[in-house]
Amino acid sequence: MVQILDGKAMALQIKEEIATEVRNLTAQGFRPPHLAAVIVGDNGASLSYITNKEKTCHEVGFTSSVYRLSERISEKELLETIEFMNNDPEIDGFMIQLPLPKHINEQNVINAISPDKDVDGFTAINIGRMVLGEEAYVPATPMGVCTLLKRYGIETAGKHCVVLGRSNIVGTPVANLLSRKGFDCTVTICHSRTQNLADITRQADILIAAIGKPEFVTADMVKEGVVLVDVGIHRIPDETKKSGYRIIGDVKHSEVDEHCSWTTPVPGGTGPLTVCSLIENTLKAYKRNNKIQ
Question: How far is it, in rounded angstroms, from Cα 9 to Cα 113?
Fold first, then answer.
């Protein structure tokens, strides 16, 4: 019988822990933590994420602000906004919602963020610190995956973990984190050029699907008893839904889940913990800024 890695329930627990800590800090006279976000244009999925982030901030007692910028903004103007936020002592951490318009170089923008306020963990400095095992802000989705495995007590030491996808946002950092002490997995990264892919995924004790293709993972690609974490999130048109779409992941859960020991639902798996991880990183930055132990 498959068991559910319930990210939604776990997120509620973590948010309550953070809210309690924030209440204690503000009762001592400290200002609330402040998380800001920059969104360029009006991408639907990006707007949904930002709305969810604002809601979560309010639930835990954070201050939240959003800079909504025109899709026609120049890279120079966006960099000036980032410089302003870097120097604003009232902002503890901020994020730039991706993707950005094609005329803007994303890496230039990301690396303009102060590493001390980079709560998304995307700057080269924070990625480098993470790879070296130093104190760093870890990217939110990989951090959420690790939190889910740890809090549910999933045995990882010595297990073969296969990661589908090598993006800098999910695949590569989660592979790095799970190979480190504390998780101690043996990790294989697969991608679009991997040969005999199904032969490799069938060896996985833990399979992280972050390949960005709807329902890519099918039943013939997993072994019995696998722990499955589906990071994918895709909007598929569905006229039967009030929203006009339904959300699916990188895994064909209708045929794969019966072979799993544990699986994440989509939605409600890694998504809620991605936002929680961003909040946790902001709390960490806030405590550093205020020299709170």
Answer: 32
Phi, psi of 222 (to 5 degrees): -125, 155
CB count in 10 Å sphere of residue 173: 26
Average pLDDT, the chain: 95
Looking up tokens 């790095």 gives: 176
What's the rounded mean pLDDT across residues 8-32?
96
Q: What confidence tens digit (pLDDT) does each residue in 232-243 have?
A: 999 888 888 888
- Quote the CA–CA distance of 106 and 99 in Å, as a whole number: 8
In this predicted structure, what is the pLDDT of residue 48? 79
Residue 56 and residue 276 in contact, taking contact as beta carbons nearer than 8 Å: yes
- Catalytic position from the list 53, 118, 205, 230: 53
Output the CA torsion sign for 144, 146, 150, 21: negative
> What whole-number distance in Å separates Cα of residue 135 and Cα of residue 132?
9
Catalytic position from the list 15, 92, 97, 117: 97
Q: Is the pLDDT of residue 44 over 90?
A: no
Task: Note if 120 is an active site residue.
Answer: yes
Cis peptide, bond prior to residue 267, ω within 30 of zero = yes
Residue 45 in this model has a pLDDT that exceeds 80:
no
Catalytic residue (choose from 15, 92, 118, 120): 120
Residue 210, pLDDT above cutoff 90: yes
Percent of the chain topping pLDDT 70: 100
Task: Verify whether residue 293 is a known catalytic residue.
Answer: no
Q: Is residue 213 annotated as part of the catalytic site, yes or no?
A: no
Q: Is the pLDDT score of 97 beyond 80?
A: yes
- Contact, 277 vs 147, CB < 8 A? yes
